Amino acid sequence: MEYSQLKNIIKDENRVILGEHIEKEYLTDGLALEYGEADALVFVKNTNEVVNIIRFANENLMPVTPRGAGTCLTGASIPTKRGIILDLSKMNNILELDEENLNITIEPGVLLKDLQDYVESKKLFYPPDPGEKASTIGGNISTNAGGMRAVKYGVTRDYVRELEIVSGDGTIITVGSKTIKNSSGLDLKDLIVGSEGTLGIITKITLKVIPKPAASVSVLIPFDNLKTGVNCISKIIKSNSNPTAIEFMENNIVENSEKFVDLKLPCNNGNAYLLLTFDGEEDEISANINKTREVVINNGALDFRELNEEEALNAWTIRGALASSICQNNEQVPIDIVVPIDKIPQFVEFTNECGKKHGIQVIYFGHAGDGNIHVSAIRNSMESNEWKQRTHKLLNELYKKSNEFNGLPSGEHGIGLTKKEYFEKVTKDENLEYMRNIKNIFDKNNILNIGKVYC
Amino acid sequence: MEYSQLKNIIKDENRVILGEHIEKEYLTDGLALEYGEADALVFVKNTNEVVNIIRFANENLMPVTPRGAGTCLTGASIPTKRGIILDLSKMNNILELDEENLNITIEPGVLLKDLQDYVESKKLFYPPDPGEKASTIGGNISTNAGGMRAVKYGVTRDYVRELEIVSGDGTIITVGSKTIKNSSGLDLKDLIVGSEGTLGIITKITLKVIPKPAASVSVLIPFDNLKTGVNCISKIIKSNSNPTAIEFMENNIVENSEKFVDLKLPCNNGNAYLLLTFDGEEDEISANINKTREVVINNGALDFRELNEEEALNAWTIRGALASSICQNNEQVPIDIVVPIDKIPQFVEFTNECGKKHGIQVIYFGHAGDGNIHVSAIRNSMESNEWKQRTHKLLNELYKKSNEFNGLPSGEHGIGLTKKEYFEKVTKDENLEYMRNIKNIFDKNNILNIGKVYC
């Protein structure tokens, strides 16, 4: 069977692109470092088209690589076995906002920023807040994306109520429910969340939304060293001060980022910083900030700055540019290891030593409130093979160490293509076997995003 | 192979009970209405013993019915195919409280009340609060138990970080992780939560805990009718007043319960009531109560009573005795259908009509904040066959209607044995097929809690 027959399924020549006519950007991910090859790129517009494409692919054993906005950082959207790229970005309609039951039903190609804007215009709130606002919600669900607000609000998984998916043989299945509680049979919904397109194509999504918090205030806390800062985190949380976000960053990369965006943090006397946000009613925020102030001042903080709107915007702009200030025009390998919170200082110390040992510049920062650390290895001018060999050794050691700390390879980006090798090394064989057997149920002919994560 | 050989595996005669020596209470569930039969009852004390028993059962194709405290209301703990009752109630040690990372590791037989007491003594809090405090946490996880505080805090699933399980062939698998975030491969953990013992035996549990709220205040709100009360719920939630619990009850059963416990609600001018709790800091509670007062007074509430400690205790005692005041010495069929919140009034109206049509007394009350409705059909003096036939018709209609409302058969009790028929009727064939195929991966020889839920 020929890929050109796809034109009989989707009778719109602008939506079926064959072979060499596929633009390069569809063959890669958000890093644009590695490129795959594919036989066809198909833009679908509804569930029926997805069913027809998947049936055709399944009958003809054609690999299918699903794709949202292509912003992922793990190669999950790179076609490695040729076949069909199934682009869902045109399925981007908001279908229904149910204000009585506080949920919203959308298509998978809706962008995070568009969803956030839409619900906020209705005085509602979609709490998950991954850094990449131009990512699709289908992609966010596929990687169980996290983001800044996870400390208070949880991650994408916690907001997915119901999913319509098309499995590997073209069967439409609805998993989860629109109800708030569910103790009715096996939880198929959470199997799909975080499955990175290996079990089915997400075609419809119902998400939980909550009322929009009245206000939001950030505070910046400098410390002599990161360890003193991290030691405060469980104390802050146990003080019941309910922070929305707790980020950490060290001075060396802060200075770089300050120059890059031409802004300054409102205090510069720390070697390490915690940047927190509190949201809710104004009284509640004040009370929570006071509790936090007391905790950190009694536990080694050098200062405590409640930020005004402009200062908060500057601090978060600096925080947001930490990686790009160093990685701009410079190849990087970004990873997002997650460890128990109290292991953050030991893990970053190990990361530093490891970088030195292998002669690679490493930077790190991240979500201190949930142990999710963003490490980037920076290439600078290293020769290509040397770079590949050294980063391979470095990553092996980092993943091994995080595993010793009861950590995991990915807290929010997913495994995709680039972490598969390391994920399989630190994951027990029996767990991988269960995952592969489950894939075999949803995708018997092994066509969906193969060569990724565990398969 | 003989069941007596179990005595070679567990060399303690008090922990292996054979055939007719098994006490009757181990052959039933919390309702003690239906009884099964079994060949052996084994009390296990550690994971190794579970592995050895499961391997023996698997090799000899002996059915295994796992059991915690036996408090379930769905027959999930009733052995229907003879075989081995695997009692985990003696695996009841608290293993480790990690105060830095706010999690606790326990054995599955720890009782809910013991866990709650233990963490509260450390100024921490385990939010899920199912009504039956003498249930085991292993059981709570197996049914994804809910309870009163789900509106603010979620259900059992939301607090399970990591599980050690023994699957149907005796393999030990650790699923989930001690980290807060996890985007590393398929989510096997949530497949186990709510699986009612059909996929594996839970042998070790790590739960998330949170800081203990400083205070808790309840309010009672009478309405002319239930519909007016339910119409307030989304408005209360959208006012950002963050209630912990929102329960509803109607006057006819309240009066019964008041007589039964010899207490009175502090106001009695309603035909229907909402009973709410708020927790947190005192200022925060006051602010939230004020917001709620404004919402409900503007939307048809007849009164608004902030309860003092004694009044709150009385109101919750009356709420807690709603079912038992009528069901004491009277057979009942309890169900826990869940519907979208705005469908509660229509669903209870239908329940009333249906009860009348079939000549069966029905009572209902429940968790208004999450749409989880407890309905009990009461037998009174009805003849046995008549009762069975009529309740069967009644239940068929209730489950069908809840399905039309996008509801589900169970919000927190699980499906077990008694709801299996109805669950299978309202669940799509493809979903049941996926569940059965997944069971086949975890339990190839089909020995674990067979004849329950979907299998």
TrEMBL record, chains A, B:
Q: Could you tell me which Pfam families the record lists for this protein? A: FAD-oxidase_C, FAD_binding_4
Cofactor(s) needed, names only, are:
FAD
Q: Does the keyword Oxidoreductase apply?
A: yes
Q: Show where the FAD-binding PCMH-type domain sits.
A: 34-212
Keywords (A to Z) from UniProt: FAD, Flavoprotein, Oxidoreductase
Supply the name of the protein.
Glycolate oxidase
Organism annotation:
Clostridium gelidum
Q: Highest lineage ranks of the organism?
A: Bacteria, Bacillati, Bacillota, Clostridia, Eubacteriales
Question: What gene name is listed for this protein?
Answer: glcD_2
